[in-house]
Amino acid sequence: MVKHEWVSPDASRFASAWSDLAGIGRDHRRGGYSRHGFDDADLHSRAWFVEQAQRRGLDVETDRNGNLWAWWGEPGVGAVVTGSHLDSVPGGGAFDGPLGVVSALLAVDELKVRGVAPARPFAVACFVEEEGGRFGLPCLGSRLLTGAVDPDAVRRLHDPDGVSLADAAARAGVDPAGMGPDPARLAGIGTFLELHVEQGRLLRAADPTAAVAVGSEIVAHGRWRFTVTGQGNHAGTTAAADRRDPMIPAAAIVPAARRAMQRFQGAVATVGRIVPVPGGTNVIAFSVQVWLDARYGDTASTAALVDAITADVRLEAEAEGCTVVVQRESLSDRVVFDPALGVSLSERLGVPIVPTGAGHDAGVLAAHVPSAMLFVRNPTGISHAPEEHAETADCLVGVTALADCLADLLL
Ligand SMILES: [Zn+2]
């Protein structure tokens, strides 16, 4: 006999949305997901979003920067907007981004069940390339929207295969010439609320019983590219004294970053990508590119952290007869979310308020619009990796919490 377990309508809708997305952008080489701005997996997940939104009677539009907006009723001023992103880091987890989008769609269902008729314009938004996994610039869609980045510089960005962002956008049906600040759209947003899987475990430390928390702030964070140049040569015939091997100072960036974490309390600094050129086993590289991700307090503190790492690396480079050029690819200052909004959401939900070291579109929008975040508990804290996880029961608490907050905001 087949046993039928009772599943709540919320749980079955969540499972169905989740299983749709589960097949899109799987990365069989790295594990997890690789969905990057305007690539095939991204276009597939964007099509999924459009279909889901239309199924709920929402009107979907693509803005000049490729961000998707699904409106419940007419767009207008003072809009309540919720949403997140569908792209991932290379080999990322299932929840980072999609959880906020799926939860937003399910919150629409929940509001309809509750008979809430929005008294203000309301939209679910999906922002382009939040992770910067393809073109290197995180929060690309929200930065373009808010004017936080020069659109000419963005159009010139290239992915590792040499495809320009302009060409990738055009292929996705977004006119690259039109990309840039969208002040009218931005001025129309009254409140932005992003639900996201927690990345870390501060929630558990704040309240071991809470499945959800409200975000308070994001520390300053940025990316730097170190180009170390030496002399390309033969691995078999070049004596130690004759070598100017850029891999020596390049490799030194890794322990220098770890030492800086010990010296600057609370700072984090990571090397996640090293590319030797030309990159042959029997070749002393001509140059090595190393990307450093650093996060600490405000921009001045983060700059001091990177300066300390750079100073160490320059000494190593000098000893090896190499040169180092450091280019800042992005830097976002510390963001404090709207304190009054955060406190009211925390009191409404009876949940703690916690900071995060992860960047988000809500952090970019917060400079212009009252913004807030909800974090859903992540048992291991692992994120940006295939093991990233949130329990379904916690995700459903997140949907209810999001619906509760939206119901209040839409009054
Ligand atoms: Zn995210």
Automatic annotation (TrEMBL):
UniProt GO MF annotations: hydrolase activity, acting on carbon-nitrogen (but not peptide) bonds, in linear amidines; metal ion binding
Cofactor: Zn(2+)
Protein residues bound to Zn(2+) 1: 85, 96, 196
Keyword Transmembrane helix: no
Entry keyword set: Hydrolase, Metal-binding, Zinc
Domain of life: Bacteria
A Pfam family the protein falls into: Peptidase_M20
Binding site for allantoate: 223, 282, 295
Keyword Hydrolase: yes
Cofactor binding notes: Binds 2 Zn(2+) ions per subunit.
Ligand binding (Zn(2+) 2): 96, 131, 384
Coiled-coil regions listed: none
Classification via NCBIfam families: hydantase, PRK09290.1-4
PANTHER family (alphabetical): ALLANTOATE AMIDOHYDROLASE, ALLANTOATE DEIMINASE-RELATED
Protein family (similarity comment): Belongs to the peptidase M20 family.
UniProt protein name: Allantoate amidohydrolase
